[in-house]
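ok trying this again, last paste got cut off
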Amino acid sequence: MTAPESLDAGEFHWLMDMLQTIDVGLVVLDKTYRVQAWNSFMENHSGKKPHTVRDQVIFDLFPEIPKDWFFSKTQSVFLLQNRTFTTWTQRPYLFRFRNYRPITGTEPYMFQNITISPLISASGQVDHICLIIYDVTDIATNSKQLQAANEKLGYLSRTDALTGLNNRGAWQESLKAEYSRHKRTGQQSTLVMFDIDHFKKVNDTYGHPAGDEVIKKTAAVLMETMRETDISGRYGGEEFTVILVDTSAENAMIFAERLRKKIEGLTVHHEGIAIRWTVSLGIAPVNDTVSEPMQWVEHADQALYKSKQGGRNRSTHYAP
């Protein structure tokens, strides 16, 4: 390769030295996708020396490069003489280089942003393109960690810490959404509310840590009994609630009795003491008599109150 006429030998030397030492990858490809230039960044991260890759087809050297996608990205550069870009959010990497950075060592591969530029010859044709590869692993890792942290914060803001169920606020949002779905589609759903019988006595007799164990175990049995489509929550204290989606009041009674009997058969051992408890349940379907979401809750709560009045450890349908 000879130095361009506009550069003397000294200028050409430092220009080539700069291209070799910059902390980005530099690859030149011809129209047949054969490598014509390969700088030190590419050599260091790939383990392939310039003389071994020269005139080799890039897809033979790196089979992980998706041909169809790469063709679509590069043909516009050849034909339209416009540069194009791709970021790590669109495609994590073009070249599968191992990530050896100690700070971001949790990522197995280097995340890359890529710029693809046309190299216009003296005749005005584009016979070569230049790939510039930027290592953005730090940026990508920080972004992923921030996203994960935000997702965790979002989860925590919706979740009851003791039970893992939806907290009251999150559950009420789901209640509103399910009520709106019913009004829009006419699909039936039934609300079940229940609480632990004589829970204050559990706390007073065995202490609050024992009470917490009872609440956690109750929540665990609820999650085991409900379907993935159902929406459960801790409504407050020892009171729980679950929306049985696309479920009639009759089928909700079957669910409620199954749940009640499971809890009745439970035993929690706390500091050598066996604790047993029961729950009372109220069942209320959504229908045209329910004018707004909280009225639906009131119906279930009234049915729960009748279970309490009737002797506890039972399930009761709402009756106007």
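PB: full thing came through this time. Residues 84 and 150 are 32 Å apart (CA to CA).
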